Amino acid sequence: MSSPAPISSPPPTGSSRWRQAPVALMVLGGLGVLVGGWLDLTQLAYSWLTGFMFFLSVSLGALFLVLMHHLFDAGWSVPLRRFCEHLAALLFPWLAVLFLPVAALAPRLYAWMGKPGTADHPALQARWPLFTPAGFYLASALCFLAWGVVAHNLRRASLDQDRTGAVACTYRMRRWSGAGIVLFALTLTLAAQLWMQGLMCEWFSTIYGVYYFAGSVWVALGVVYLITLILKQSGILEPVLHEHQFYFLGSLMLAFTVFYAYIHFSQYFVIWNGNLPEETFWYVLRERGAWRAVGLILIFGHFLLPFLALLRIDLKLSFRWMAPLCVWIGLMHYVDLAFNIMPVLHPEGYAFRWCWLDAACLALMGGVLARAFGAAFRRHAPYPVRDPRLREAMGHPAFCPSPLSGGELDEADALADAPPEEEESVR
Predict the structure, then answer these.
(1) Chain Cα centroid distance, residue 209
(2) Cβ(323)–Cβ(229) under 8 Å?
(3) N or C: which end of the chain has fewer CB within 10 A?
(4) What is the pLDDT, as a whole number, of residue 16?
(5) What residues make up the domain containing 90?
């Protein structure tokens, strides 16, 4: 039996008819943001924070996928790693720049900031010095600094391997991932508590960081699936993709659908049964008016529908099925963030009259980030061309087992396009 064909050089990522779409989004979104700020600056602050936390979750989720790729020595995810690195690198400086409006409008967002008498509140005293203006800005800067250092060093080592082919780059990425996962856990929890939970500083939840983490990885998996599908159909990743990538992404989406529901229900169950007023008021507010309907939408749309849609193995490989589902996942994640943020400003229900401003904030931030992502993607090879595990990721058997080869594909050889294994030579 003949050996697998050698890995070809990556195809060019030339011009695309969608190249100007980010610019259009930036122009339209920018006009909407200016009008919204002129009409109601406080509403703009909440709309901007919701959109910012949405895009932040995508980049943090992508960073987590890169960290897990190296920590678990995954082989199947090698073709997807490069654009995940680009998504993670958006954390600094691009998302740090997009955080500036949040920092400037923080006194309008956080009732504890800059108002007389709030410093004596027991909840703030318990969280001193974090919930002080100086602590807020210093902790925020440290979060972006940590994310930037980890994400850019991982991508730098990956690009160095493209030039040199050195296996040492793989070990360098593993070392950065070992330290990075600790920083990731600490900073994500800090950011979620400071920027979202801090909207109601009286409220406590010990798993709120895990709650935001679960949603971040969930939506990032949907984005990664869509990007992989687009790059496959455009021919950019076609030479190195295998059916396994889509199957494993779908399986991870199912896992995080269940994990999110478990964390959300656990938080609700513990707080409701504890029956402490300083905790239950958060849910009491979100069971009033139209927010009760939003809560039911999350139960069925954020959990039940994706859970049932992802149960069948064959549907994970049906692009006509999965593409709309990935879009739905993004929509439900945004609704979940609005459910966490908007009741502070609109306790009776979501203000549909301001949905155009929410869309404008998303368009402006999405345009900026899409343009930055596209520029980074075009500057470099679309996948790690000299990674030792790239052939394994394509579904070919590893002829020379080594510490760098995983073996994840052994359990998925029954999929439709799995290449036949080499027959043992007869002596």
Answers:
(1) 14
(2) yes
(3) C
(4) 58
(5) 21-409
C-alpha 218/C-alpha 54 separation (Å) is 12
For the chain, give the mean pLDDT: 87
Residue 230: alpha-carbon gap to chain centroid: 18
Higher pLDDT, 96 or 123: 96
Q: For residue 50, is it within any domain?
A: yes
Q: Which amino acid, residue 85?
A: E
Distance between CA atoms of 77 and 66, rounded to whole angstroms? 9
Amino acid identity, residue 66?
V
- Which amino acid is it at 256? F
Domain assignment present for residue 420? The answer is no
Residue 98 inside a domain? The answer is yes
Pairwise CA distance, residues 272 & 421, whole Å: 55
- My answer on whether omega of the bond before 129 falls inside 30° of 0, hence cis, is yes
Give Dmax (Cα) for the chain: 87
Residue 226 falls inside a structural domain: yes
Structure tokens given for 27: 């122009």
Number of structural domains (the chain) is: 1
Whether 94 contacts 22, CB under 8 Å = no
Q: Is the dihedral of CA 273, 276, 279, 283 positive or negative?
A: positive
Of 147, 171, 169, 174, give the one whose Cα is nearest residue 158: 169
- What is the chain's length? 427
Confidence of residue 113 (pLDDT cuts 50, 70, 90): confident
pLDDT digits (tens, 9 = 90+) for 345-383: 999 988 899 999 999 999 999 999 999 999 999 999 999
Cis peptide before 93 (omega within 30 of 0): yes
pLDDT in tens, 2-43: 334 445 556 555 445 677 899 999 999 999 999 999 999 999
3-state secondary structure the chain: CCCCCCCCCCCCCCCCCCCCHHHHHHHHHHHHHHHHHHHCHHHHHHHHHHHHHHHHHHHHHHHHHHHHHHHCCCCCCHHHHHHHHHHHHCHHHHHHHHCHHHHHCHHHHCCCCCCCCHHHCHHHHHCCCCCCHHHHHHHHHHHHHHHHHHHHHHHHHHHHHHHHCCCHHHHHHHHHHHHHHHHHHHHHHHHHHHHCHHHHCCCCCCCHHHHHHHHHHHHHHHHHHHHHHHHHHCCCCCCCCCHHHHHHHHHHHHHHHHHHHHHHHHHHHHHHHHCCHHHHHHHHHCCCHHHHHHHHHHHHHHHHHHHHHCCCCHHHHCHHHHHHHHHHHHHHHHHHHHHHHHHHCCCCCCCHHHHHHHHHHHHHHHHHHHHHHHHHHHHCCCCCCCCCCHHHHCCCCCCCCCCCCCCHHHHHCCCCCCCCCCCCCCC
